[in-house]
Amino acid sequence: MLRWSDILIFAKYSNPEPPRRLHKNEAEWAALLTPAQYRVLRQQATEPPYRNAYCRSYEPGLYLCAGCATPLFDSTTKYHAISGWPSFTQPLSKSAICYAFDEGHHMQRIEARCNCCGGHLGHVFPDGPAPGGLRYCINSESLVRVDE
């Protein structure tokens, strides 16, 4: 189980090695993704709160990266955080997500990215439920839910 101290160490020193890496140029990403997905995954945009596909969805399944289909989260770790975006307590595996310090918008946050394709997913915060205390606040546009 990952804890906030693990996330800080990954962001500061080195992220876990991903299971694979996917590299595409911006034209290839633009052709592969919808315009909304491209804005979120490649341009670090944030979708509007509460008006997104997975905010209020709790169906069982796996959540994959919309850019490269890497499994990121299991629905069993999804919870109602009242944040306006899908929230998860843990990634599917330690190597699924990579972390970076983000000081944009006059805030200090930890950005969560797909560790395979580098796509922006959202942010992780230390205010989640026990036992891990993590809240992965993720844009729906960066995810695709599939049945297990």
From TrEMBL:
Stored SUPFAM superfamilies: Mss4-like (SSF51316)
Alphabetized InterPro entries for the sequence: Met_Sox_Rdtase_MsrB, Met_Sox_Rdtase_MsrB_dom, Mss4-like_sf
Catalytic reaction equation(s): L-methionyl-[protein] + [thioredoxin]-disulfide + H2O = L-methionyl-(R)-S-oxide-[protein] + [thioredoxin]-dithiol
MF (Gene Ontology): peptide-methionine (R)-S-oxide reductase activity
Keywords: Oxidoreductase
Ranges where the MsrB domain occurs: 26-148
Keyword tRNA processing set for record: no
Keyword Oxidoreductase appears in the UniProt entry: yes
EC number per UniProt: 1.8.4.12
Matches recorded under Gene3D superfamilies: Peptide methionine sulfoxide reductase (2.170.150.20)
PANTHER family noted in UniProt: METHIONINE SULFOXIDE REDUCTASE, METHIONINE-R-SULFOXIDE REDUCTASE B1
Protein name as it appears in the record: peptide-methionine (R)-S-oxide reductase
Native species: Hymenobacter lucidus
Source lineage: Bacteria, Pseudomonadati, Bacteroidota, Cytophagia, Cytophagales
